[in-house]
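Help! Submission page says 'invalid entity' but I think these are all valid:
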Amino acid sequence: MTTAASDLMFKTLGDPTRRAIFERLCREGELTVWKITGPTGVSQPAVSKHLGALKLAGLVKDRREGRETHYSAQPQALASLTDWARQMTGFWERRLDSLEGLLNRMDQ
Amino acid sequence: MTTAASDLMFKTLGDPTRRAIFERLCREGELTVWKITGPTGVSQPAVSKHLGALKLAGLVKDRREGRETHYSAQPQALASLTDWARQMTGFWERRLDSLEGLLNRMDQ
DNA sequence: CAGACTCATAACTCTGTAGTTATGATTTAG
DNA sequence: CTAAATCATAACTACAGAGTTATGAGTCTG
């Protein structure tokens, strides 16, 4: 049960600001905290906290270089999310299949 | 930009209780509010509110029958989620490709 | 019709957390 | 060495929302 992983994933990506930061890192690649803070509309400490949460969920990694920290996205982490979705759809389809089977048996 | 759809999706599935309800509907199929309330550990009004949120996000549909309401999962709605994930991974890979191309050109 | 059942809504409380400002720890520049 | 720059942490505030109880609306039973 990877529920624990996807649990943290959903919780982390639930916040719009945090998700916007992650999206930008996916589009633009590695960025410093300063550059990320720019268009977000929130303060630098707020951005740092969001980056900390994303890192805790394994969605980003950081690399210190002098006095600046570079963050980059780790989209592979989204696998636990798509896995969960696939699993949910699977349960649903299997139910349809068994229903179909039942109807077929009733037909005979 | 399907950001609006996936925005609501993430927000809705962000709550553990709500996600547990959705998972159960995927596994067990159509259920009444009463049956859903059972193992959740929360009150019936709380469950009703969660079901309302799930319905608003298009993740479940309801069917009234006498004095009881039957809810069932709509896993197709998860498409906007996996689409978003695919898009994010796509941005990332495209960046790797262009980096690779750049390195190749520098090699020559 | 009276009463039990199922669900939704209203009104309210309370906790989690996203935001703030202030400050400290490092690092670069002059 | 002093000052500016970059980021993280601490302490605090404020609000969204998940939970509660109480109640209403609609439905079946006897």
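Support: the input was valid. A stray whitespace character was the problem, and the output above is from the cleaned input. Residues 8 and 14 of chain A are 10 Å apart (CA to CA).
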